[in-house]
Amino acid sequence: MDAIHLPGATDPQSVLAHLRAAALHPGRSSSTSAATWSPTARGEHLYLTLRDSKPATVRQDGLPWQALAAELQHRATCPPW
Q1: What's this model's pTM, rounded to 2 decimal places?
Q2: In this predicted model, what pLDDT tens digit does every residue of 8-65 receive, in sequence order?
Q3: 8 Å CB contact between 22 and 29
Q4: Which residues pair with 64 in a beta bridge?
Q5: DSSP sequence for the chain
Q6: 39 and 33 Cβ atoms separated by less than 8 Å
Q7: How distant, in Å, are the alpha carbons of 12, 28, 38, 41 from that of 35?
Q8: With CB atoms 3.0 to 4.6 Å apart as the test, which of 7, 11, 32, 65 could cross-link to 46 if both were Cys?
Q9: Is 8 left (phi over 0), alpha (psi -120 to 50) or beta?
Q10: Which of 26, 24, 32, 25 is nearest to 79 (CA)?
Q11: How many Cβ atoms from other residues are within 10 Å of residue 11's Cβ?
């Protein structure tokens, strides 16, 4: 099994770039997040907090769930066998 390590995941664009590169490889994939998910102050959106994220700035320096879901949605699906 291959693993993707996000070295120094400090900004959303580098995390998305690593995910895009990983999505180019054929075959099944699974994802594990050893990170913290944080809602915005109003609780409207969910963000993946990155290394330098703080609760007050998660909208600027976190990765929105919508962006992550959109990246995974574009990945070609494999048959269930």
Answers
A1: 0.65
A2: 677 888 888 877 777 777 766 666 666 788 887 777 889 888 877 787 888 888 888 8
A3: yes
A4: 47
A5: ------TT--SHHHHHHHHHHHHTS-S-------SEEEE-TTS--EEEE-TT--GGGHHHHSEEHHHHHHHHHTSPP----
A6: no
A7: 13, 22, 10, 19
A8: 65
A9: left
A10: 26
A11: 17
Which two three-digit tokens encode residue 66? 């919508």
Spatial strand order in the sheet of 63-64: 36-39, 46-49, 63-64
Return d(Cα 19, Cα 54) in angstroms, integer: 22
Residue type, 58: V
